[in-house]
# Entry
Amino acid sequence: MIRDEVPAYWQLPELGTLGVRHSRHVLPVTEGTLAFIEPTDIAEAAATVTGVTVPLNLAIDAFSPPLFGRSALEHSVVETSRNDAEDHLDAFNPQASSQLDGLAHVRAREFGYYDGSLDLSSARVRIGMQHWATRGIAGRGVLLDLLGDDPFDGSAIRPDDLLAVAERQGVRLRAGDILLVRTGWAPAHLAGGGIRGTLSWRGLAAGEEMAEFLWDARVSMVGTDNPAVENSPGDPAVGSLHRRLLPALGLPMMELLDLERLAKNCAELARWDFLFVAVPLNISGGVSSTANAMAVL
# Structure
């Protein structure tokens, strides 16, 4: 098993002078930490299914306008004949709503993308979304419910917070897990609780301690219901979790997931693990995708 053979976080080499450690040349470049998922993980998660399907995707046009100045979807329906109609999508940004960040989404300054290339066109060929799309993503998902009083307070969720919630919920992280963290930001924002233009949210701490925790736990992917997984506003002195995970460790990130119904189902069933499935858009050279994610309990 590749996850049993990789070094501990502190044994990974440093990426230049950025203050981050990297797994380049340790994991398959097209998979990153998705390589931690073993076929037995998928089979064991599937064996727990009782038949409850929970899509984790907000509407593509849920955020109006989309965050960070991203283009809003332009959707029209065209009657191509007397008896047929087709959808036409224009100005479609896969990151306008529930999304999956690919390995060509973020570059580590002069040290390039996860494949080591400095040129985006090269990275799009070597580590573009098409590789995950043809691979498919499935495994054991775990939801940690860290819903707090104020999802807009910008506070950082630390590894000890995650472990405390896992203990309270009676669930244990295993190697290969897809970790989902509920903060309550997306529903609160969409309900009008956030001040438009004030981008502040609770999220995972951006420092090395969190990167070390996720790597040593052999988490294969992490997702939240906030816009960036990590908390905002960030601290330049702490650094960027995006940089630590995507171009350094090769660890995929999902953002703006719909975790409300999943949290309700998990609480009712008194179980916080499930079969997780995602099928990224098969866009050659894509740097991102709509999440296309679902939990099956």
About this structure: The first strand starts at residue 53 and ends at 55. The two ends are 26 Å apart (CA to CA). The chain has one domain: 2-58+98-296. The mean pLDDT is 95.
